[in-house]
């Protein structure tokens, strides 16, 4: 418990100091609870998520970093490995392949990589997975792009 | 390290330490430890806690742990490096060490962290060589060697090493019996120590020298293991725990208090649970 707090505090300081290093990720700690974080990540370029800004919610367990944080999308996203309703993410490093050397920042980077490289063989969103698995790249991309516009794009005007 | 250097380290600590912190706690290293294959560095308690978490997910307990940084499989954690020797904690042993690693093993290992020569006023080593007491076989030697090597290596199966060293000791004493009557006890002693050192060094590395001295001490004492342990601990001022288990409370140490660093050592290593 004490260890997880100390480590999260270190990560907090690191985030403050290196804000400019990774402009695609903005990590913010909850004002009153160091175990709750939110992140804004930019959709990677040359993907249907380009131009979108996606919000992630982190819930960090007390055994962190021996246990992985729980992360989900708050912003609606059409992606084979993200549950369309709950925003739950299917990503090995958040489960079996977790290592305590990961940080919240590097988890964000892993999620951005997952957005660019979906794994249709372990889908949480079957519609999206099926489109990709049947080779309908165009169908998948247009659906994903539509949801990016609808849910993840900054409002104009 | 002298004090000035320590101070200047203190001053620069925030920048230099943070640039290379422990990957698990992100803080400065406490008790630097290394994984044995990839040599990535962690705090001892950080990496030990992680191996426990990993082990908890698998049954039976795995014998290796993946490095959190590079995923290399590692069999043990190396820690407590003091310039000449180090401690090694096997991934599997941290969970099953207790099955063979008894209190007696623990006490023997601790002895290696004390100043040598503790029995010098009780056991007269030179007389052992002068009076040629070594010509009488010591029937406790094999058991003593087994326990000693088990304690040092923290490994249960050490039979090969025990037999190897026993063979060297035996053949030396037998050989000396016949042909080399003319030598002085001192050369005899030196020759003996060199031979045993050579035999033991591949296995015991930096602990070889002390091990040979302890072996000589045990032989020279002429005591059986129980009596030897009792005398040894009495000299150290340790509470003589009945190594068999009970009765430890009966006899309180009336000698010098236990050296504090032994407690520190006790804390972080050779845990039986």
From TrEMBL, chain A:
PROSITE patterns: UBC_1, UBC_2
Ranges for domain UBC core: 3-153
Keyword annotations of the record: ATP-binding, Ligase, Nucleotide-binding, Peroxisome biogenesis, Transferase, Ubl conjugation pathway
Enzyme Commission number: 2.3.2.23
CDD domains per the UniProt record, alphabetical: UBCc_ScPEX4-like
Example GO molecular function: ubiquitin conjugating enzyme activity
Enzyme class: transferase
Active site feature: 90
An individual GO BP term: peroxisome organization
Family stated for the protein in its record: Belongs to the ubiquitin-conjugating enzyme family.
Protein's recorded name: E2 ubiquitin-conjugating enzyme
Automatic annotation (TrEMBL), chain B:
Keyword Zinc in record: yes
Organism whose genome encodes this protein: Hevea brasiliensis (Para rubber tree)
Protein name as it appears in the record: RING-type domain-containing protein
Keywords of the record: Metal-binding, Zinc, Zinc-finger
PROSITE patterns: ZF_RING_1 (PS00518), ZF_RING_2 (PS50089)
InterPro entries: Znf_C3HC4_RING-type (IPR018957), Znf_RING (IPR001841), Znf_RING/FYVE/PHD (IPR013083), Znf_RING_CS (IPR017907)
Keyword 4Fe-4S: no
Domain (RING-type) ranges: 22-71
Cited PANTHER family: RING/U-BOX SUPERFAMILY PROTEIN (PTHR47692), ZINC FINGER RING-TYPE DOMAIN CONTAINING PROTEIN (PTHR47692:SF2)
Gene3D superfamilies named in the record: Zinc/RING finger domain, C3HC4 (zinc finger)
């Amino acid at each position: 418990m004490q260890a997880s707090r100390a480590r999260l505090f270190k990560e907090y300081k690191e985030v403050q100091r290196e804000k400019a290093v990774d402009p695609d990720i903005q990590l913010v700690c909850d004002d009153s609870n160091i175990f709750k974080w939110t992140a804004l990540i930019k959709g990677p370029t040359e993907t249907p998520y380009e131009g979108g800004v996606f919000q992630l919610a982190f819930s960090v367990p007390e055994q962190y970093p021996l246990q992985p944080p729980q992360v989900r999308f708050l912003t609606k996203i059409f992606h084979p490995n993200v549950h369309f309703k709950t925003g739950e993410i299917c990503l090995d490093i958040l489960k079996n392949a977790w290592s305590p050397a990961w940080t919240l920042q590097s988890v964000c980077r892993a999620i951005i990589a997952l957005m660019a490289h979906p794994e249709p063989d372990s889908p949480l969103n079957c519609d999206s997975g099926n489109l990709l698995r049947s080779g309908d790249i165009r169908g998948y991309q247009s659906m994903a792009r539509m949801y990016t516009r609808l849910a993840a794009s900054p409002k104009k005007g | 390290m002298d004090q000035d250097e320590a101070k200047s380290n203190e001053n620069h600590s925030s920048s230099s330490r943070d640039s290379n912190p422990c990957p698990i706690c992100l803080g400065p290293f406490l008790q630097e430890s290394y994984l044995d294959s990839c040599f990535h560095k962690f705090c001892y308690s950080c990496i030990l806690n992680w191996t426990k978490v990993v082990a908890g997910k698998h049954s039976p307990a795995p014998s290796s742990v993946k490095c959190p940084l590079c995923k290399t499989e590692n069999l043990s954690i190396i820690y407590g490096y003091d310039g000449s020797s180090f401690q090694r904690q096997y991934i599997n042993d941290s969970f099953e060490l207790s099955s063979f690693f008894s209190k007696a093993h623990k006490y023997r290992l601790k002895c290696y962290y004390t100043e040598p020569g503790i029995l010098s006023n009780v056991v007269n080593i030179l007389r052992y060589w002068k009076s040629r007491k070594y010509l009488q076989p010591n029937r406790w030697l094999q058991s003593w060697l087994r326990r000693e090597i088990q304690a040092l290596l923290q490994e249960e199966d050490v039979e090969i090493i025990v037999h190897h060293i026993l063979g060297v000791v035996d053949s030396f004493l037998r050989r000396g019996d016949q042909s080399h009557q003319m030598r002085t006890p001192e050369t005899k002693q030196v020759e003996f120590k060199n031979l045993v050192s050579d035999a033991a060094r591949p296995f015991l590395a930096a602990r070889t020298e002390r091990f040979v001295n302890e072996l000589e001490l045990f032989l020279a004492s002429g005591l059986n293991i129980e009596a030897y342990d009792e005398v040894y601990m009495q000299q150290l001022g340790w509470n003589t725990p009945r190594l068999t288990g009970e009765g430890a409370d009966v006899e309180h140490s009336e000698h010098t208090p236990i050296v504090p660093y032994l407690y520190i050592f006790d804390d972080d290593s050779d845990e039986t649970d």
